[in-house]
Amino acid sequence: MSPLIPAPLNSLRVSKYQIPAYQNFPNTSLRPFPFMIYHSVFPSSTSSVSASSIEAHLRKVGIVEPAWRYTMYTQHHYHSTVDEVLVVYSGAARLCFGGGPANPDKVEVDASVGDVMIVPAGVGHGLLEDKGGFGMVGSYPKGSGNWDMCTGQKGEKENQWEIIKNLEWLKGDPIYGDEGPVVNVGETTEEGH
Questions:
Q1: What CDD domains does this protein map onto (predicted)?
Q2: Which of 1, 137, 143, 178 is in the most buried spot, having the most CB atoms within 10 Å?
Q3: What is the pTM of this model?
Q4: pLDDT tens digits, residue range 59-113?
């Protein structure tokens, strides 16, 4: 397996979004960290992009630990105990971030092979449409323990929101290590809302 080489930072296109709370989904309202998309980090035209090569790259960088290979649940949900890193290794899909398609501040994304999504704890997400063979590697910060699944129920707001407020941010960029958009979260590249 040949190692994956991410796009150079100076040519990386990044979209960042602050998504206000919506119903019982806190989104990015509790911490200053945006939902981010790294567009086409890994060249989808090469056969070297696979779940195994993505997992090997993430382990080599050492910020997150790959945990699963799957699509995205259609049930809109968020995690209160961890930030999540999603890397697409196959197919394409339309995804929704923000707690559901009725949210006027939602972010809909057409994700495809080589895209990376940095999903801060609290940001709701769900699959709108699988456009064929969609698969991702899901990863969480090393040493973070178990992740949870919150679906926007009433009782979650009192319990999980406080947990989210106290979470530490990622200790480095999961793709680039000591530099990159996660580390330089305050710097401007391409902004969403």
A1: cupin_YjlB-like
A2: 137
A3: 0.93
A4: 999 999 999 999 999 999 999 999 999 999 999 999 999 999 999 999 999 999 9
Any domain includes 13: no
118 in Cβ contact with 174 (< 8 Å): yes
Rounded distance between C-alpha atoms, residue 147 and residue 65, angstroms: 12
Q: Which residue matches tokens 């945990």?
A: 67
Closest CA to 70 of 84, 82, 88, 52: 88
Q: Is residue 100 part of a domain?
A: yes
Residue with tokens 């100076």: 10
Q: What CATH number has the domain bearing residue 128?
A: 2.60.120.10
pLDDT tens digits, residue range 14-52?
A: 999 999 999 999 999 999 999 999 999 997 666 679 999
- The residue range of the domain holding 37 is 18-167
